Structure formats: C-alpha cells, structure tokens
Amino acid sequence: MIKIFGSEEEVAHEIAKEMKDHLLHDANPVFCLASGSTPQKSYRKFADEIESDSRIKELKIVSLDEWVGIDRSSEGSCYQMLNQDLFSLVQLDSDQIEFYDGTFPDLQQECLRIDRYIDHNPITFSLMGMGMNGHIGLNEPGCPVLNHSSVVDLSETTKKVAQKYFCQPTGLEKGITLGLSQVAHSKRVIVAITGERKAKIVKEVFSNLEAKLPVQELFDYEHIDFFLDSEAAKYIK
Questions:
Q1: What is the DSSP string of 22-71?
Q2: Under-70 pLDDT residues of the chain
C-alpha cells in the first residue's frame, strides 16, 4: 500500500512510532535498517521516543548492506552512517549488532554468516530506502531476485550517488547485500521515499510495471507499505 504524507517530518514521525511499537511488542525484536539520508530523521525521532527504555537492550540489528573494500570504521561506510544516526544515540552494545564486514577476506563466508544469523533471528521490522535507480539495499537493476546474501556489482548510478557519503572521491565497485526475498520475508517492511529528487523515479516505479526495478519486487505484500512525502509523490496520480 502507498501512504502519502504531507511532509518528510510526518513520514519520520510515523516510522519512529512503528519502530517503537515493534521494539516494545515483538517477542524477539530484530531490525534490518537502511543507512543513508532518507531514514536519518526517523532514527533520531525513534531515539528520542525510547530515551532510556530498558527494552532497547533486547533489540538486535542485522545488516542490510555494505560497500566491499570499505572498513566499517570509515566515514561513508553503511555501518558508520547507522552508528552516527542510531546506534550511538540509543547506546546499543556491539553484541546487539550483526553487520557485514566488507573487508573480510572471504566474502562468501561473510554472506553465509549473516544468512545463518537471520535463520536463527528472523527479522521482525525492516526499514528500506529506495535508490535513485530503484534499488533496495544493493540489489541493483538487472540483478536476479536473490533469497540469500550476495556480493553484487554496483551500478554506475549507485557508484555516483554514493560519493556524497565520503569526504573524498572513493572507488566503489561491489557491495554485499541481503537479497530482496530476505527483505520481503521480514514480519513488517516499510519503504520510505522522500524528497523531490526522487519524484521522477517514483513515477517510473509506480506507473511502469514493465521497468522491472528491484523495488517493484516488494509490491503486492500485505505487510509491506510505501511511505512517501508529498514531494516524492508529486507525479503520482
């Protein structure tokens, strides 16, 4: 279902509310969360909402994606963005976070490690963003629909857009990511899309089903909603 809100602030408020509800009511809360600029406000509102709630110690976070070859401590890594926007704000311990290591020598083993973690800790809440090319995580256009973690080639669009996260030009060629099927099998999924810069790709996603964009694989699930602000939805009829 598509839900259109008047502003980015309203989107963030509603997402933070859902995050809190899942934290408080899921028996074993496991969140899979996108990094980047779109969800920043949601995470900060969530952190403000829960403050020092002891239930936060029950939360587990599993990685969605990471750049191959980028150390997690580096500015611009997916881990570092989430650490700044959420982990550090709610004082998560390291054993609550299971994240891809994009520098691990055997990336296939790294994929297996995260997949096994999810097998034992099913995801109860996922918050996704959508890339400028319709990607989810690092599932890029033209890639097969994956039901497992994989190392993927990054599209030229992703490599270009991602430069905004780094303080200097950074070579990016591959990523490691959960598969779309793994995301879809979360108990609850929200795809947040905000800002006028996303308006054209939003129009493509929702009006051209022949485009076969990754995000379109998340259509027609009752537990998956698309939260848009009015700017991102400006071309939707």
A1: HHHH-SS-EEEE--SSTTHHHHHHHHHHHTT-GGGGG-EEE--EEETT--
A2: none
